[in-house]
Write a structure and sequence with these properties.
- The protein is an alpha/beta fold.
- The chain has one domain: Spore Coat Polysaccharide Biosynthesis Protein SpsA, Chain A.
- The protein is built from 9 helices and 8 strands.
- Strands 5-7-6-8 form a 4-stranded mixed sheet. A two-stranded antiparallel sheet has the order 1-2. Strands 3-4 form a two-stranded parallel ribbon.
- Helix 3 crosses helix 5 and helix 8 packs across helix 9.
- The radius of gyration is 17 Å and the shape is globular.
- It starts with a strand and ends in a 5-residue tail after the last helix.
Amino acid sequence: MLLGGIPIVSFLLRRLKAGLPENRFKIILATTEKTEDDVIAGLGKKEEIEVLRGDEHDVLKRYIKCLEVFPADVVVRVTADNPFTCPEVLECAVNEMIKRKVDYLKCENLPVGIGVDVFSSSMLKQLDIQAKDPQEREHINLYVLKNKEKYATFFFNFDGKRAHPSMRITVDTIEDLENIRYILKPSDNDPWRLSLLEALKRMDPSII
């Protein structure tokens, strides 16, 4: 599906690429090895993003594969159904995790589709051993959320102008897609650069 005239995944990749400092963040598109996802891999390469491919359902294993090829201390989970993921929120979450010296951080009190999950690489490697259920392999934060007492976790409660948890800026349905398309204007140049606050104001003019 298109958003701002380009595929949603391309919109997201451009948004992250434009908003994150290149010397600090490496963006990787981790898709499946299925033939029908060749087009997804092709879009990543077109956007000059590293692409790694793995098991369709074992998403956790894909993350481990990414770590093997591109070692890092911290890994951020971003999902392609959230094209308005906010780079500022992402960087703030990483900084908070490092400051608090935790292994997992989850963003809260934000519009649906804006927050991210942040993991230490050591935790992901532990999860690869501990998480057995297929659901825990597909949704890589599920095991942590079910076993919070085992880990150093922090639930980052955002406040201020970004704190609108009742709003949805995600794409789970066609209705969601139409709603976020409404955010963009024909006059927007590089619409993927639209700030989160401006997007929220366009959805709800009462937000100041």
